[in-house]
Write a structure and sequence with these properties.
10 helices; five-stranded mixed beta sheet; single chain; alpha+beta; about 65% helix
């Protein structure tokens, strides 16, 4: 702002007094002097116009017509979303098998229509969108949901994520059942445990009860939770989150379109039918 005002003052000074810088003893100024005076005037006008615009435009955009700024921001966001969706479409088309390979799958596993959801069991919004996805799966048999467990809340999400992924190594249907249990039931201990190691142990104990109810071998599940396949899937989820600029959960890819946040069943169905 200060620099702009100084430029404005300089432009005004040049416009008013610039000709005085060129003193000539002749009554009739030379052509070169005339040209220089005109040039000084032109520079002065450009400085004045530029500084006035610089001072007025922010005022116009913020006080007179702030809607323009909003339109510009919305336009930029739309362009960014289009670019992101383009990158997602390309990757999903080329790497669908890799995205599904080690992830739990809900619904009709042979369905052509696919929903990918980045989720965390400790996230309330994720649990809400899981319920919306369940509604869709109850009504339709032409869709599957690929659960990409994004462990972003420490022990609160890490153990459940590992268990859901490890369960698929044993049995895909039992993995789907365990996933639904973890996302719909309370797996966190009732007592307030501050020690993170003890908290992780308490969470694992509750999850193993779900796993046993789902018909899984809990000894093998514990072993697989710390195995290479689970580690690879967790890394794959993080890598894709970075590629798709996913900073939070839930995040859904329906068909080839991205939906950040918890969206309702009706919106999910509309996206599937596009």
């Amino acid at each position: 702002m200060t620099l702009t005002i100084l430029v404005l003052v300089l432009g005004a000074a040049l416009f008013l007094f610039g000709g005085a810088l060129l003193k000539s003893g002749d009554k009739k100024p030379a052509d070169g002097a005339k040209f220089t005076k005109h040039l000084i005037k032109l520079i002065a006008v450009l400085l004045l116009a530029g500084s006035v615009c610089r001072l007025y435009v922010p005022y116009y955009l913020t006080d007179v017509n702030p809607g323009i700024v909003q339109e510009m921001v919305e336009g930029m966001q739309k362009k960014q979303n289009e670019d992101k969706n383009k990158a997602i479409r390309k990757y999903v088309r080329e790497s669908a098998a890799e995205m599904i390979e080690n992830a739990p799958v809900l619904g009709n596993k042979d369905a052509e229509k696919t929903i990918y959801v980045w989720t965390a069991a400790s996230c309330g919004y994720c649990r809400r969108v899981h319920g919306e996805l369940d509604r869709v799966l109850d009504e339709r048999n032409d869709v599957k949901v690929v659960v990409k467990n994004f462990s972003i809340h420490g022990v609160m999400s890490d153990g459940p994520a590992r268990a859901m992924i490890a369960a698929k190594i044993q049995d895909a249907d039992k993995a789907a059942k365990l996933t639904d249990m973890i996302m719909t039931r309370e797996y966190r201990p009732e007592e307030n445990i501050q020690d993170q190691k003890k908290l992780a142990e308490a969470i694992e104990k509750n999850i193993m009860k779900f796993a046993e109810e789902a018909g899984l071998d809990t000894a093998k599940l514990k072993e697989d939770m710390n195995g290479e396949i689970v580690a690879r899937e967790l890394a794959h989820v993080r890598d894709l989150a970075q590629r798709f600029e996913i900073t939070g959960t839930p995040f859904l890819i329906i068909g080839e379109e991205a939906f950040p946040g918890a969206i309702p069943a009706e919106q999910i169905k509309a996206a599937l039918d596009k």
